[in-house]
Amino acid sequence: MTPSRRSLLGWGGAGLALGAAVAGGAGALARGADEPVPAALSGAAVPFHGTHQAGIATAVQDRLHFAAFDVKTTDRAELIQLLKDWTRAAERMAAGQPVGEGAYGGLAEAPPDDTGEALGLKPTRLTLTIGFGPSLFDDRFGLRSSRPPALIDLPKFAGDNLDPARSGGDLCVQACADDPQVAVHAIRNLARIGFGKVTVRWSQLGFGKTSSTTPEEQTPRNMMGFKDGTRNISGTDTKALDEHVWVSEKDGPAWMAGGSYLVARRIRMNIETWDRTSLQEQEDIFGRDKGEGAPVGKAKERDEPFLPAMLPTSHVRLAHPDSNGGAKMLRRGYSFTDGTDGLGRLDAGLFFLAYQRDVAKGFVPVQRSLATDDLNEYIQHVGSALFAVPQGVHDKNDWWGRALFS
């Protein structure tokens, strides 16, 4: 057995129980012979290395598998080795390559290094983004003094009904792709690599992106049927990204420069109640019309809203930067439907993901402002987590979190 093979054998073990029905890739579209194939259909790979982690400003993909992990090992060196192993695996999967020595052809007496369900599939713009939760910065790994001041404990907000089993986590990995099987494969393999060192605390599958970082494309709709993310930060707006998303060297600590802070919230929607609400009331609650998405009194979706024309308790008015001291976040949310709640109601809603430079100046004031939102009658926040998302992996010798542990 070669040394590399011996180190890779630790990647086997119990697989991650997913229990998810996954659909096929994007359907065929009618195109002319000379018309370029969109990136989402080409199966293109997103570069893994860079100043910032992929999966933040990257054009939002169609599918999500998000997982939060608890670290079980108390050995700092073992955790560092895991992060190195995860990085190498993430590099390969983002390029459409199997993990380690692959799903077959290795030692018959050992579990394969790759689970195999993505064999033959293209990368479909897979991105893997890691974050570190507040609970990681305790005495287990000597990180207490390295916790960023911006990695705060989120306050309790009005209407929160948080499930501890769906909140928090030492680590998180956000896997986004245009093929759900590719995203699920990525999280499953990282969980296998981490067997015995980390366990999945909670996870979330998402479909139908509810925010876009590409404003030139059609704005997606949420489960309530309204366009979401009209005023979201564009992934190519470097000025806005530097101002509102990327942590600067001046913000500190140094290991977070080029990173961001991620708020993840599982928001349950009372779909059945909403579906029996009149169209006029729905539009009043949001402050936009349902068809075009135009603000109250305007004709087009991207017309500048006139906030005084909206109800004081409308969602757009309360969430608007002008109502929150200019606070902005880059949102990458997804819809979810996780069966029923046992009472015949869909367990459905929005898995809210938002990246920002400073949570105390971004998510916190906006969420407090939304305390009087009329939409609260139809939604409830049931899961919550905050993660420090470090800078990108610069080259083949770099790894997730290297600057933190150096």
What does this structure look like?
With 406 residues, the protein is an alpha+beta fold. The protein has one domain (44-405). The chain contains 10 helices and 9 strands. It has helices at residues 3-8, 39-42, 76-94, 180-193, 238-244, 271-275, 279-286, 315-319, 363-369, 402-405, and strands at residues 63-71, 127-132, 171-177, 198-209, 260-269, 330-331, 334-340, 346-356, 379-389. Strands 1, 2, 3, 4, 5, 6, 7, 8 and 9 form a 9-stranded antiparallel β-sheet that branches. The longest helix is centred in the N-terminal third of the chain and has 19 residues, at 76-94. The model is unreliable at 1-37 (pLDDT under 50).
Which key terms come to mind for this protein?
406 residues; alpha+beta; 9-stranded antiparallel β-sheet; 10 helices; 9 strands; 19% helix; disordered N terminus
